[in-house]
Amino acid sequence: MPISQALLPEYDHEMANARKALERVPENKFGWKPHEKSMSMGRLATHLAELTGLVPTALESESFDFAPPGAPPYQPKTAASRAELLELFDKNVATARAAIAAASDAQLMTPWSLLFGGKTIFTMPRVAVLRSMVMNHIIHHRGQLAVYLRLNDVPVPALYGPSADEQI
Predict the structure, then answer these.
(1) Where are the beta strands (DSSP E) in 21-144?
(2) How many CB atoms lie within 10 A of CB 9?
(3) Which positions ≥6 away from 157 have C-beta within 8 Å?
(4) pTM score
């Protein structure tokens, strides 16, 4: 079985769970933060929606620099509405899924690097980038978002089993 085909069921499952959490983000709480050092709920949710956008970059280039020397750094954005948030997420998920499905084993095993200011943060096979920097990263931030939801009395969706708010 090709690596991409082994990866897709997990990808689909995690993206469905991420969407469940994003659907709960209340627009009137986009600016809410649990702490001054924390991302706002809107920024956190948008970050979650943006993460699969890294997939085509990881599969089609040798590296990505968040702050390339002599060029403007990556500028994170915040969706203005839940509809915009979900549209961004759905678009990125579909594009990423197609890129994963089309990737060869050789392509997935090729090293890829994340850079900041021209300095390498890490280099690993692209398949590991998809698992760690995309899926695991999404799982991490989805967990944060679930706490944000709980702290704002928004029902937390059932993800891997029932939640205190939702039985499966």
Answers:
(1) 63-65, 111-116, 119-125
(2) 9
(3) 17, 20, 21, 23, 24, 163, 165, 166
(4) 0.94
Q: pLDDT of 28-64, one tens digit each?
A: 999 999 999 999 999 999 999 999 999 999 999 999 9
- The single residue listed with the structure tokens 């993460």 is 51
Burial class (CB in 10 A: 0-12, 13-18, 19+), 88: buried
In one-letter notation, the amino acid at residue 34 is P
pLDDT band of 88, cuts 50, 70, 90 = very high
Domain spans of the chain, in order of start = 3-22+39-61+80-105+127-151
| Adjacent-strand bridge partners of 20 | none
Judged on CB neighbours under 10 Å (0-12, 13-18, 19+), 58 is: buried
66-81 residues labelled b (16+ CB within 10 A) or e (exposed) = eeeeeeeeeeeebbee
Express each pLDDT in 112-135 by its tens digit.
Answer: 999 999 999 999 999 999 999 999
